[in-house]
Each structure stands twice: as C-alpha cells, then as structure tokens.
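Give me the 3D structure for Response regulator.
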Amino acid sequence: MAIRVLLVDDQPLLRTGFRMILEAEQDLAVVGEAGDGLQALDQVRALQPDVVLMDIRMPRMDGVEATRQISGPGRDGPAKVLVLTTFDLDEYVVEALRAGASGFLLKDAPADELVQAIRVVAAGEAMLAPSITRRLLDKYAGHLPSGDEPVPDTLHTLTDREVEVLKLVARGLSNAEIAADLFVSETTVKTHVGHVLTKLGLRDRVQAAVYAYESGLVRPGAQ
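Predicted structure for Response regulator (223 residues):
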C-alpha cells in the first residue's frame, strides 16, 4: 500500500513542488495539504496520514506545537512527523525533535532525499542526518543542559554496551558506522538500539540523541 503523506507548509508554491515530486513515486500518495498547524491537526484527524511533512514557521500554530499534538508524549496515532527546516534560520528544530518529530530535512534537499526520508520515517525509523544533527545540537547547545546535572535514574537501566551505543547514536553515527566502531554486526547494533529505546521509553533514534544530550551523557561539542 502507498505511504499516505500530508503536506504542511504556509507557502502554496512549495506544497505544489513537494506534491509533484511525491506523486511521481508509485509508493507515495499525497492525501492532503495544510497551510498552518491548526489545519494540519484537522487534516491528520480526518485523513489519517502515515507521514506529515511539517514546516516549522507558520501562522496561527507553528510546526513545533503541531508536532507535539500529533506525535508528542502520550500520543499513539500512526502519523510520523518529518520536519522541514532551512537550518540557518530555524532555532526551533531541537524543540521539534523533543516534541516528537521523527526527523528533519533541509528544504533545499534533493528530491531523492525527500522521497527516501519519507520512506524511512514511514517504516518507523528516524531520519537522523548525522552531520546536520550534530551541527544543530552543537549550534543550539544553549537549549540543552551543561552536563553538570545529575544523571537520570533511567540511564542506569542500560548496560555498558547500550550506553556506548547511545553515545554513538547521539553523535550521529549510522548503524553501520556504530557496528564498525564497536566491531559488531549491524544486527547486533539494531538490537542494542531497540533495547535503549524500550528501556528509556523513547520513540526513535532522534529522541535518543536528544535524551543523551539532555541527560549530560554527551555534551555539545564533545568528540
């Protein structure tokens, strides 16, 4: 079955461009559009999309609050949120990830990256672009703890190896890169990541990365 996509952006021209790209793919179907966060909430309830392509800066309700109401804590709906950002301007991206977004994509990303990102998010994975994620977390380090705070009790539920994996996820490494770094198989890494998410009550790798910074396990700028 085709992946059902809702386009949310306050610029009609951008929505038209995204629609043209996505409707050229046999496994993707654009089921609706919205020009702001409030319209997005209505469309999500009415259309039940699999993925919401969400802009951040919009009138009436921005993408962060809309994301929180669609995919935030306690929400168990099927829709995953993929946030669109211009990076240089959007200081709210970290907040969007905290709010429950499954990842983010630059607005000027190539068409094939947009398509792949939607497929990844629809499959329940996180669209965690390593270099961009690291730059975002470092750039907006002021939003995050200094690392001097007490380590949360939940972190103590992880094994030493799971802590290692969490640190590498937070630094933007892919499963393949983590496997190479730890001299284990990708399947083993996926198992460890799954255990980390379950034990910490996190939705995906993006939230795991944010948790690692917020808990002080990884500090912005650390290697």
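Residues 57 and 63 are 6 Å apart (CA to CA). Let me know if you want a second pass.
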